[in-house]
Amino acid sequence: MASLAEIRARIAAQENKQQKGASGATSDNAIYPHWNMDEGTTATVRFLPDANSSNTFFWVERQIIKLPFNGVKGDPNVKQVQVQVPCVEMYGDACPILAEVRPWYKDETLKEMANKYWKKRSYLFQGFVRQNPLGDDKTPANPIRRFIISPQIFAIIKSSLMDPEMEELPTDYMRGLDFNIKKTSKGGYADYSTSNWARKESALTEAEQAALESHGLFNLADFLPKKPTEAELRVIKEMFEASVEGKPYDNERWGQYYRPYGLEAPAGATAEPTASATNSAPVATPVAESSAPWDEDESTTSSQPVQVPKATSSDKAQDILAMIRARQNKSA
To answer: What are the backbone angles phi and psi of residue 320, rounded to the nearest 5°?
Structure first.
C-alpha cells in the first residue's frame, strides 16, 4: 500500500494535469479513457479474460454510492464536494445506506432523493486497444489496458452474449471478436448506444500474444475498492446521514477513512486511506456522462499480473458462454 506522502504526491500530480486540461488518467496510463473521444469517433478494443479462473465472466462489477456534501466544514471557499464510498452489496453483504433508501421509493416525494443515493454500477474489463482515436493517448509499456464500462455500453455487451448466433467467446485468443466503442451525443450528453461487436472473428496478433506472455492478465477483482471494515461501515452510515441532512463534509471526523478527491487527510490521522478515499472528487456541478464513470488511483492497488495459458479452446468457450447465459437468465 502506498504511503500517505506518495498518495499526496499523486493527487498533486493529477490536479496539475487537470489544470492543464489533461484527461486525468493514471500515471501509467493503464485506464483507457474512451470518454475523452471526440463525438463521431470509434475506439476498437479486444477484451481479454479475467486472470481469476473462478470468475465466470470476463469483467467485474463495481458498485459505488456518491455522497454529496454542502462544502467542507471550516472551509468557506468550497461550496460542494462529493465522496464516493463502496456499496457493500458488491461483496454480498447488506448495505446500510440502501437499507435506508429502499423504502423511500414507496413515497413519490422521496424518489428523486432515493435515486441520488442509490448505488451506481460500472464494469471493469481488460484488453487491447486496436484502434485509438485519442491522439494524445500513449500506449503504456504494458499494452493490456483496463476499461471502465458504463451500464449503457455493458447492456450492449451483455445482450450480444445472449445471442445464440455468437458461437465463440469474444475473448477467445484465436476466434474472438473486437468491440467498437462508438461515441455520439443525445440530449447534450455522450451516447454510446451504437457501439457493437465486429462481424468477423480475428486472432490476436503476434505482438498481442507476446504482450500476454510478457505481462500476463490482471485479476480484475484486485482493482475493486477495499471491503469496508465494521468501523468504516459506521463512518459510511454517519456520512450518509450528514449528507441527507445537508451538512458539510467533516474532514477531521471522516478524513482518515473516506474523503473528497484532492482533500488531504487531517493532521495526525493514523488510518490508511481506503481505495475510495482518493477516488472521490470535489464537484460544483453534476458529473456529466462524458466524464469517467469513476476515477481510479493506481497507488491504492498492488495487483500483479498473472500468467495464463496462451490459447482458449473452443470447447471451453462454449462452456463459458453457456454459463454466462444461464447466470444472466437466472438473474433476469
So the answer is: -65, -40
- Encode burial over 292-303: b for 16+ CB neighbours within 10 A, e otherwise: bbbbbbbbbbee
Interatomic CA distance for residues 156 and 28, integer angstroms: 29
Does the predicted model carry a pTM greater than 0.85? no
**What CA–CA distance (Å, rounded) separates 70 from 245?**
10
Could you give the CA distance from residue 24 to residue 18 in angstroms, rounded to a whole number? 6
What does the longest C-alpha to C-alpha distance in the chain come to?
Answer: 62
Q: Are 216 and 61 in contact (CB under 8 A)?
A: no
Q: End-to-end alpha-carbon separation of the chain, Å? A: 38
How far apart CA 28 and CA 5 sit, in angstroms, is 18
Torsion of CA 223, 184, 181, 26, to 10 degrees: -30
Give φ, ψ of 78 to 5 degrees: -100, 120
Where is pLDDT greater, at 16 or 91? 91
Contacts with 18 (C-beta within 8 Å, 6 or more apart), sequence order: 24
SS3 190: strand
Euclidean distance between CA atoms 229 and 71, whole angstroms:
26
Q: Rounded to an integer, what distance in angstroms lies between the CA atom of residue 281 and that of residue 261?
A: 4
The pLDDT assigned to 278 comes to: 39
Q: How far is CA 277 from the centre of its chain?
A: 15
Q: In CATH, what class is 4-331?
A: alpha beta
For 42-53, how does the pLDDT look when each residue is reduced to its tens digit (9 = 90+)?
A: 999 999 999 999
Where would I find the beta strands (DSSP E) of the chain? 42-47, 60-69, 81-86, 120-131, 145-149, 179-182, 184-186, 189-191, 196-197
Q: How far is CA 100 from the centre of its chain?
A: 25
Q: Which residue has the cell 471550516?
A: 74
64 touches 85 (CB < 8 A): yes
User: Which cell is 130 given?
Assistant: 486496436
